[in-house]
Amino acid sequence: MPPDSFSVPIVIAFAVLVLALAGGVILHMRTRRQLAQLRGQLVQARQAQEHLTRETSARNQRLVQAERQAHDGVKVMHEARAQQDLVRAETEHLISKRIPALLSHLRAPHVIVPGVQNQTFAGTDVDQQHRAILDAFARGVRDEGERIDEAAQAVVRGAMSRVQTQALRAQDLLADLQQRYSGDEHTALLREVLGLDMFNELIIRRVQVTGIACGATTGLSRDDTYLVDLVVGAISRVENFELRIEGPANHLRRRIGVAARAAESILFTTAELLANAVHHSHGTLKVTVAVHETNNGAAIVIDDAGVGLNEEQYTRATQLLSGTHPVRLVDLGNPPRTGWAAIGRQVAHYGMQATVKKSAFGGVQAVLSIPTALLVEMPEHTRPSVLAPEPVRAAAPAGAAAFRPQPVTASRSEQVPPSVRPDPAPAFHQERPAAPEQRRAPAEDLAPLPQRRRQSPGAASGSWPARSSGGSGGSGGSGGSDDTARKILTTPEEAQKRWGDFQIGAEAGRREALPPQQHDFTEGN
């Protein structure tokens, strides 16, 4: 074959081979590109799958957390409901148990207020809030109780003041009747008048103690008065005193008196202590009274053989007699026993001291201590009343008293008719044989008392000075006329006889006009 015949197929073959190679390369390139695309898509698919897996995992976690939260929420709701039930039960316990117990505790301190019912609340906010409620409730009840009690005491003070005024007017009318019908022809009438006078005196004392316990004053005023006269006047204010009280034993060695500002208060306090002693004594032993001078003033000692007091009663008596604690009417019982409360007010006001303890007879010994600031030394020209006992001499045997028991009349000397009113000075000297210098000798070492130099208008004019219950009588002055002096002057024997006859008649009338009575349950303290 010619050479050209081989070249054409070779060229064609070569061209075909080139084309095949080119097609293979192009196919390879396209395949690689497609593989690259597929690989990219696979990576994206993997990434998408991983993202979806993460989202699914996060969704599952959120779902689990939500379920856990829901479970916790249900648990918390149950716990809150249980806690609410416990708080409701505790609140019901507060309303039904603790508040009523608090009311009882305010009335009677021995009642115990219970604490929280569930001890899991102890010290928590619930416990503190409930305590705050109880405290606020107690303050409100106390404030309202004090306001009501003050209003009640004001009403009682006003009522007792009016009653006391009318009773004192009645006493003046009875005193006028005693003076007007003092003759022998009016003996029966005088007995009735004396009985009414004693009843009226008891009414005045009960009205007085009730008013003083509610913050009132004694309602009476006096001049400087011998202390022993005040004790005698206090004895005369007690019912059946002539049968139930012995004394007073006068151990004073000087002319000791009480200043005018405190005279009625001391008489009232002594009368209440005596009334309490008599009320609780029902044996054969009488209530004894003694008056002593102490280093810090004077003391009135009252002993009874009554039922006595237990420890709780002694504590309450000490609290009331001190006068340092406020006293409400509701705390005095039903009916109110106002004696110790009234004494406490007077003791605190005048700086005195009243104490009670067990007596030698198993009863109660009451001691009223009077400070020196309330005492005065009475002027030499004055003398105690004829009812005052003689001082107990140091040489007398133990237990012997220089005082001869005699009946004591009502507490106001205005009840004695002028015709039988004795001269106190001669009678006083008649019963005191010892020289004044000898009796004043033992008292020289004692502290001096304040001197009072005032002279009553009655003494200056030569007439009898006006005396109230238990008061001291003054000697007549030298400035009166001769007719007045002749009417007043009398011998000691005549004065003793007249006064003794009057006392015998007065006591007989009282015993007939005042039959034995049932016990007054408001008398005790």
UniProtKB/TrEMBL annotation:
Query: Compositional bias (Low complexity) spans?
Result: 397-407, 456-469
Output the PANTHER family linked to this UniProt entry. Answer: SENSOR PROTEIN CREC
User: InterPro entries recorded for this chain?
Assistant: 2C_sensor_his_kinase (IPR050980), HATPase_C_sf (IPR036890)
Q: Which reaction does it catalyse?
A: ATP + protein L-histidine = ADP + protein N-phospho-L-histidine
Q: Where is this region: Disordered?
A: 397-525
Composition bias (Gly residues) maps to: 470-480
Residue runs in coiled coils: 28-55
For whether the record's keyword set contains Membrane, the answer is yes
Q: What is its EC number?
A: 2.7.13.3
Kindly indicate where the leader peptide sits in this chain: none
| Protein name listed in UniProt | histidine kinase
